[in-house]
Amino acid sequence: MTLPRQPDQALPAIAAGLGKRYRRGWALRETSLVIPKNRIVALVGPNGAGKSTLMGLITGLLSPTTGGITVFGDQPTGRGLHPAVSYLAQQKPLYQQLTVAETLKLGARTNPTWDQHYAEYLVAQGAVPMEAKVGTLSGGQRTRVALALALGKRPGLLLLDEPLADLDPLARETVLRTLVTEARTQGITVLLSSHVLAELEGVCDHLVLLHKGRVLLAGDVSRLGAGGTPLGVLAMNRMREAVREDAA
Ligand SMILES: Nc1ncnc2c1ncn2[C@@H]1O[C@H](COP(=O)(O)OP(=O)(O)OP(=O)(O)O)[C@@H](O)[C@H]1O
């Protein structure tokens, strides 16, 4: 079994001080963030707030216009993902014609830190048949395979860009429960973007709230909501405040 990569414990998972401008304007401005390790982070904000852009900068698929970003102390190279990072985008990167077993084999071929036993265990836990073609699986089963592919790499940081959007509420809950268990037991930092604040409640212990390309709130939920305010209420209150400030 391949041992999980152990990022330097003294370094944060993500440290950023940057801006990102597309042709149409700034998607992120003066974004300053430090995300410690071993957190399950809710990345939330309205449409167009800059969540996917931030994910793209962390993966190195995008590069900052100003400033910089580090992931476990390293600057993204732009030549593929950091070895300790797994990224699961909304459109799950799976080949419909491959079987689940062939999909995992591909994971093994492309990831030096691949843990086949662990990936098979995650698939089996979801009762997904190994010989089934990916194209014949249900949405929930496909998400389970995509998650096994992402976690089989044994990442230190897992980025999930609205991965549960096409699942029914029960499947969402099951996948989230698996995710939290694995993140907690394996010491994985997870950055999870979602519009459904309620489903992040009790799952995420750290909040990053973006609005119009700015960080409105960032930190551990226990610290931000000192009186035990739930994550969803914290985020909604701060967003309403920002809308009022914009209107004033
Ligand atoms: N490739 C691109 N070219 C030009 N503008 C872009 C590009 N990608 C994003 N943008 C713009 O940057 C801003 C932030 O977009 P981004 O996709 O990061 O937001 P988001 O928070 O992920 O939104 P959503 O919740 O709708 O997915 C938006 O104004 C968007 O129109």
UniProtKB/TrEMBL annotation:
Domain ABC transporter, residue spans: 13-237
Keywords, comma-separated and alphabetical: ATP-binding, Nucleotide-binding
InterPro entries: AAA+_ATPase, ABC_transporter-like_ATP-bd, ABC_transporter-like_CS, P-loop_NTPase
One matching Pfam family: ABC_tran
An annotated Gene Ontology molecular function: ATP binding
Record-linked PROSITE patterns: ABC_TRANSPORTER_1, ABC_TRANSPORTER_2
CDD domains: ABC_DR_subfamily_A
Protein name per its UniProtKB record: ABC transporter ATP-binding protein
The organism of origin for this protein: Amycolatopsis vastitatis
